[in-house]
Specification:
microtubule binding, 5 strands, 14% strand, cytoplasm, 206 residues, ATP binding, cytoskeleton
């Protein structure tokens, strides 16, 4: 029994562990090729480069368009300045030596837009309790010597316009055209006979 117990108490012999078979490095490389980390970056860069090129082309295109627009505006501005200079010289040559040539040109330009139908003397006399008449006198010799501007226009039989020259804050010249209405308005071309004739009619009508 002692030998049996001794045998029973002896632990079984351990079988040495067999080493795991090492995989064939050539086969592993053949079936599991190494993944290169540089490849996705190369693909990403290949994808992003055309986008960057396109963006740069768009920016250059916008810059070129802006430069062309500025150039065109500059040429138009120069052309307009040249036209204004020619107009100014032409107006000055119309009345050389006149210091008021700008106002004179403005008055003439405004008068060209008016339909003049002055009093002729053949119109019927209207009966009014109170009749207000006005007569424009021509420039006298002194005013003509000083080359003053005729600032009164009589477009119709009952209207008179005063062209008042003014200056803006930036010294730009302009006209303020004020219209006045009367019963009868005589311009500077009306003779004394026409004026007296109307005065006679008005006095008889009253």
């Amino acid at each position: 029994t002692t030998g049996r117990r001794g045998t029973e108490n002896v632990p079984p012999a351990q079988t040495p562990a067999q080493p795991a078979p090492q995989p064939n490095s050539r086969m592993t490389q053949q079936f599991n090729p190494p993944v290169s980390s540089a490849r996705p970056a190369a693909v990403a860069s290949a994808v992003s480069v055309p986008h960057a090129v396109a963006s740069g082309a768009v920016r250059r295109s916008n810059v070129v368009k802006e430069v062309e627009r500025l150039k065109e505006n500059r040429e138009k501005r120069r052309q307009r300045q040249a036209e204004l200079k020619e107009e100014k010289e032409a107006l000055m040559n119309m009345d050389p030596g006149n210091p008021n040539w700008e106002f004179l040109a403005m008055v003439r330009e405004y008068q060209n837009t008016i339909d003049f139908r002055p009093l002729t003397g053949n119109e019927p006399v209207e009966d009014h309790q109170i009749t207000v008449c006005v007569r424009k006198r021509p420039l006298n010799k002194k005013e003509m010597t000083k080359k003053e501007v005729d600032v009164i226009s009589v477009p119709t039989r009952d209207q008179m316009i005063v062209h008042e020259p003014k200056n803006k804050v930036d010294l730009t010249k302009y006209l303020e055209n004020q219209k006045f209405r009367f019963d009868y308005a005589f311009d500077d071309s009306c003779t004394n006979e026409v004026v007296y004739k109307w005065v006679y009619y008005l006095s008889e009508a009253s």
